[in-house]
Amino acid sequence: MINFYEASITCPICGNNTDVSLDASNGDQDFYEDCRQCCHPIHIHLHTNELTNRLEVIVNSDDD
Fold first, then answer.
1. Considering its fold, how many domains does the chain have in total?
2. What are the two backbone dihedrals, phi and then psi, of residue 6, each rounded to the nearest 5 degrees?
3. What's the domain range around 26?
4. Which of 2, 9, 19, 60 counts the most CB atoms within 10 A of its CB?
5. Are 37 and 62 in contact (CB under 8 A)?
6. Superkingdom, according to UniProt (predicted)?
């Protein structure tokens, strides 16, 4: 199984698309990535669904 992915996410503050690198080797994760346009932190929740072998990415603002 491949554990490293590139994804394009949308900043929940300004709507700008930002590319992020995702490392799914450690299972479920919560981390922050700063938007390259507005510099606000983006909260990213990474979930690996082992039953379907799918990677789920949930994005919200820092205050959600």
1. 1
2. -110, 135
3. 4-61
4. 9
5. no
6. Bacteria
